[in-house]
Amino acid sequence: MQNIVREMAMNRGKELKIVIVTGPTASGKSQLATNISTHFGGEIINADSMQVYRDLRILSARPKPEEEMQLPHHLYGVVAASKRCSAGEWLRMAKAVIYDIHSRGTLPVVCGGTGLYIKVLMEGIAQIPSVPEALASEGRSLLQLHGIQAVYQRLLELDKNAADRLNPNDTHRILRAYEVIRATGRSLNEWQSGSLSLSPLNACFIIVCLMPDRVALYRKIEDRIDEMLQAGALEEVAALNRLKIDPEMPVMKALGVPSFRNYLNGNCNLENSVKDAKQVTRNYAKRQMTWFRNQIKPDIVHANFGAEAFDCIKPILASRLVHRKQKN
User: Fold this and answer.
1) How far is 61 from 65, CA to CA, in rounded Å?
2) What pTM was computed for the model?
């Protein structure tokens, strides 16, 4: 914390400008962020909730090692698959990295499609205490033994207000609300409606949102999953299986992981597993596009993929980043 305060003092009077590159999965965000960082002298900060996990390089579409060596990348592969990385934890890490980048006179370029991460970066978040692993395990055991309806019924008894606001089949949110009430004695609603203990960054955000044609995006998604298979996606999921991680952990719900686990566990053939992975990913991209249209107000929206978009948006960014040195 002292380091962050010192860095902020060093930069007093210098406006903190942050470029955010976002959009649906497979839209070319990483390529665009690389082009922006190379041209304007930036460093890339991950804002993808699955790319934070160390054991999920292929299926999360993390930049390749050689790409990460071309220029600084931050918050990629920094969390073990057996751990959870909440939005609050990501925000704490991201703020420290961004202040450090800014203190060195370099442009922070935040890249990712996890809308919640972008939202908390700009708006802050109420800090909810960590849930002890024993209590988290209690909720997961109840789920595995008796199903989500049993967890929901228990939540109704402990925190009716939170339960009434949730879909009875929403496993993730029901478990989260149950864990919080058991760990803290306070409703998740109370924590969320309280003051922001993790404040947003006081910065000028320049948001670039890629929104390609949906049909073209779906083709890109299908091609990328085929490429992931060739790159070793099945072996990556098999390695996760060997770690015997709780199926309710975030990494085990990443796009493609449940589909390929079904194949590896003998529940379907490879063809159906691949079809399912592609369908789930297309559905996710559709939800992302809806979220971006309704939840954020980008400065630049480009209806193309990242590689093709840079030349068009470069002059706009240059006008917003007038103080930065540019490379030819």
Assistant:
1) 12
2) 0.81
Of 104-108, 111-115, 195-199, 252-256, least confident by mean pLDDT is: 195-199
Q: Is 325 inside any structural domain? A: no
C-alpha to C-alpha distance for 8 and 14, rounded to whole angstroms = 9
- The region, left, alpha or beta by phi > 0 then psi within -120 to 50, assigned to residue 272 is alpha
DSSP secondary structure letters along 116-142: HHHHHHHH-BPPPPPPPHHHHHHHHHH
| Host H or E run for residue 287 | helix 270-295
Domain count, the chain: 2
* Closest by CA position to 151, among listed 112, 186, 177: 177
327 occurs within a structural domain: no
Structure confidence by residue, pLDDT tens digits, 160-173: 988 998 988 888 78
Asked if residue 155 and residue 115 are part of one domain, the reply reads no
Q: Is the four-CA dihedral 245, 248, 251, 253 of positive or negative sign? A: positive
| 300: containing domain | 2-125+197-320
Given a cut of 50, whether residue 6 has pLDDT beyond it is no
Specify whether 44 is located in the same domain as 117.
Answer: yes
CATH assignment of the domain containing 218: 3.40.50.300
My answer on whether 211 and 78 are in the same domain is yes
Does residue 328 fall inside a structural domain?
no
Which tens digit of pLDDT belongs to each residue from 267-310? 999 999 999 999 999 999 999 999 999 998 999 999 999 888 99
What radius of gyration, in Å, describes the C-alpha atoms of the chain?
Answer: 21
Q: Name the residue type at position 240.
A: L
Please say if the pLDDT value at position 118 is more than 60: yes
Main-chain dihedrals φ then ψ at residue 19, nearest 5 degrees: -90, 130
Q: What's the pLDDT at 9?
A: 38
How far separated are the first and last CA of the chain, in Å rounded? 37
